[in-house]
Amino acid sequence: MKRISRDEIAARVARDIPEGAIVNLGIGLPTKVANYLPKDKDIFLQSENGVLGMGPAPAPGQEDFDLINAGKQPVTLLPGGSYFHHADSFAMMRGGHLDICVLGAFQVARNGDLANWSTGEPGAIPAVGGAMDLAAGARDVFVMMELLTKEGESKLVETCTYPLTGLRCVSRVYTDVAVFQIEPGGVVRVVDDVSGAGQDELRRMTGLDLVF
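^ 3-oxoacid CoA-transferase subunit B, sequence as received from the core. Prediction below:
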């Protein structure tokens, strides 16, 4: 079984973002999605610190550190893009104006619960930040993560054991092994076996009764 890379996960997410969508890319791994959005589609990237119309990452040496995303990474601005006060950005997020947000996660439960801000360990970040607003406000929540922890445990679980970011909010999970759709009633459907693992192996890895 050949697991796909983080860049390949980002490219797979980008394939599912439709024309005209307003999308927030979370801190960390999700920011890679910007580099794989098709240039022939109008897709509008929003950042919670107050940017709309972000483009891909700047070329080395072309960074403008007055133009950054919420993770303090330098970004580019497409023609027609804008930046504004973060209070307006949070009003956009909380008001249901985002079509999709793409977030990382420590765990996703089969009912769509999301845990992505803390493992509860000493030294962990002290607050959930804007992830809670995104999880509650976006029409669709896509999660990007590697399927297994370093210890080999599935991050796609029956019930989250880490502090929750949002309840029943995740609609799709993109991993290095497969893409999973979270459906009503706790149904987890495999929509793309990107690694070729097969049904039995995916069920073994997740410990869930997956639907294909």
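The mean pLDDT is 94.
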